[in-house]
Amino acid sequence: MTRETPITEASATALVVAATTPTSPTGGDVRITRRDALRRIGALVGTGIVGGGVITVVNEQRSSDWASAASALASNALHIRLRAAEGRAEIVKGSRTPVWTYTAEVLSGDPSAVVPSGSYLGPTLRFRNGQRVRVTFENRLPQPSIVHWHGLNLPQRQDGQPADVVDGGKTYEYDFVVDDEPGTYWYHPHPHMNTGEQVWRGLAGMIHVLGSEPSGMPSNELSLVLQDRSFNADSTLRYALSMHDTMAGFVGDTLVTNGVAAFSATVKREPYRLRILNGANSRTQRLTLSNGGSFTVLATDGHLLPNAVVTKQLVLTPAQRLDVWIDFSTFADGSRVELRSADLFTDGSGLGDLDARAGVAATLLAQGPARPGKAPTRFTTAPLPSASKAVNASRPKQFVLSTRRMTHWI
């Protein structure tokens, strides 16, 4: 665990670590960009070198980029306490269900970095690209646990691996720099053999990485965490009862979105960015709109697509995220549209009438004056890779998705 040493602007003017300082062929220092400096300092923060005092001082006049980068880290740094504990939540209206849940508070930095979910789900954590983040994780569960930052590019010690679990009553200190594209990520527990159960009990939350994004992205946003649950007669959660469930993954019989069954929300009649996470343990979700409308897909798993893709359906495997654009101005004032979800593998074959067995994941009510917008279409001018230039262009490898022996195969 990292010994904490805050980075200040004054100390940062000399913060060049000998092992990673770039040099020219003649042996002199070379200029590095502010982004390179953030990457290098972030890597050192993540491994504990910064915070342990292992630094080498060089000419201050040649360290302006390091100073600028470290100044940004100091001014935008965030420290939060994230706690996992037992609790109760109203997943189904009128019933209080025992759950495990994350709560968080900002110890220093931007107070808006923690947005409560209003349900058993953990709060949405709002990180910024290039930001230094420290997290004090407190485990108050009856099982060992650790927090994994799903999708973030982090050193192993900061990634929340099973080897790093801490027992109930113990803490784990994270200290890293966010070096990821603006986009949608999430966090969840990662203990060996107990990850599925702990997620099922309620431990999960979204991460929004903020930063510079292409023009045309809508200012309106709605996050949707799609899950499922099964309940006993006393409203407690039921998990993994059969050998089939253990082998193929447990799929609940009740759709749960943002921590509640029968989720609904009111949206303005304007363009929206929907940040969608399939947070279900095993359900592969095929999503459609009840009015036959289209989705414009902007990003997947935190990364913008080269070009936006228009489609009538979305398919999300467990843990997958999609950012999609929908213009609700095309809906009549007061109209409702359902986001419908069908599990592709419910019957063990991936076949059958998907529309007939789809359930309602969310109901959205469009209200207000219509303010139409135009969806962004292209996010990069870089040339796309060509299949003809692949090393195996003449002998492509084929992957077949199927279900056999109660499990999924590639």
Question: What does the model show?
Answer:
This protein is mainly beta and 410 residues long. It is built from five helices and 23 strands. The protein has helices at residues 9-12, 34-47, 64-76, 195-201, 243-248; strands at residues 78-89, 97-108, 114-115, 124-128, 132-140, 147-150, 171-177, 183-189, 205-210, 221-229, 254-257, 260-261, 264-268, 271-278, 285-289, 295-300, 303-311, 314-316, 321-327, 336-343, 359-367, 402-404, 407-409. The strands form five sheets. Strands 12-11-10-14-19-16-17 form a seven-stranded mixed β-sheet, with no helix packed on it. A five-stranded mixed β-sheet has the order 3-4-9-8-6. Strand 16 (295-300) and strand 17 (303-311) form a beta hairpin. Helix 2 (34-47) packs across helix 3. The longest helix has 14 residues, at 34-47. It is globular and about 50 Å long. The model is unreliable at 1-33, 46-59 and 347-351 (pLDDT under 50).
